Amino acid sequence: MCPPRLHGFAIGPSLLVLSTAIACGSAAPSALRTDGSGAPDTATTPRQPPGWDDEIRIPDAVDLNPSPAIVEVKLAAKLASYDFVSGGPTTVWTYDGHVPGPLIRANVGDRVIIHFTNNLPDATSIHWHGLRISNAMDGMPGISQPAINPGESFDYDFVVPDASTFWYHPHVDSAAQVGFGMYGPLIVEAPREPAGLGDEVVLVLSDISVNADGTLMSEDTGGDLGSLFGREGNVLLVNGRVRPTLKARPGLAQRWRLINAARSRYFQVALPGHTFLRIGGDGGLLAEPVTVAQPVLAPAERADLIVVPTGEPGTDVVASWIAFDRGFGTAFNRPPKDLFVVHLEGEPVAAQKVPDLHRDIPPLDLGTSGLVSLTLTEDQLSPIELGINGVPYAASQPVMAHVGDTQVWEISNTMDFAHPFHLHGFFFQVLSPEGPLEWKDTVNVPVGGTVRFAVKYDDRPGMWMFHCHILDHAEAGMMGSLMVMERDRN
Ligand code: C2O
Ligand code: CU
Ligand code: CU
User: Fold this and answer.
1) Per-residue pLDDT averaged across 204-209, rounded?
2) Beta carbon of 465 within 6 Å of any ligand 1 atom
């Protein structure tokens, strides 16, 4: 049974019922998300095959709060046992015993309360990646809160202002803890979206490093060189499973919300014979959707994709990982690997028209903006020390700004490896290299390249982190802080 879970943005009684059905299960076709024109004609509405996402779907977090505008969840970090390899079980680090952790779903404007308990052998915290929430809820130990020790609890409590695909993960010893399985999805839904975006499935892409007997490889495998390359797991996971199957009705659109939750691995995704319509990214919908052949997600990036699986009923198409050259031979001699199977089933349907998805994203006004110049640096090889502007995080001074300021950040990369640069707490607009107009919180800075982005600080003062999201690099020192001060009173 599914707990009742109503949402505050529904307008009339019939819509309230509909949004309950959507929160509840897999079978609700997106055609139900109409804007009040009445219930769809179920006899003629084509559906995905029965149980289409049963093998792959991430369990929903249980909302304990009857209020439609509050999502209240209990979450515990704890060890659990998974079977990834035939040689033996793997003791993973999890949220609630699941890799990935439960799917937390809310509507824009909802209050989200997470009663978190740490039952791990180590201290931890939860960072809500990409969410524009108050600094006190950012999950950065020693800055926004104390680390949560084994046996301790902490309540996260915030309002979610933006619709998009987000995720959560620890910010203590993050390379190790994320690498051991700690990450989960958080979806914030727009109050209303056009019908026809496809049946949604959230796909958390990751990997894990396990020995032949199933035990976890130690977090520092490969020593300094391991840190320099960034440790990629030897087992690829899609929603915590090895090569799971997703069923699809030929011709019927699906909406794949992809999250790269890997500690260091980039995901370039191919589905032979298919292209994707990328409608969104880190910070919600793009200004205009773009067609992509093989979407690339650097660590921590998200992609909101519409795909129309086609092919003979009864056949399979395999979504695969394609090596992405992130520098220093990282794509050399690495054949594609299977991610998951798309099994076609049922009578093909004629492809439907994707609704118009224009979104107004006004480019930030750069009139009075200040410039922040950062260079990502390799300061020392042994013991390894990476940094920003030649200093590791521990020795760094914060970048300073005021509420209301707009800044242009110029991030240069002098290393032989690419770096996915992430800023906590604020979305930015990439100015160059030129791409689709969208809000982002993580951007790849290629080898020898420079990325410029603009960011405007809304009224959430505090100390915010930025770092490379190859978490091995962040742990090696490639991290810094941004102090957003209250506006001067003059
Ligand atoms: Cu996913 Cu400090 O971030
Ligand atoms: Cu973050
Ligand atoms: Cu890096």
Assistant:
1) 98
2) yes
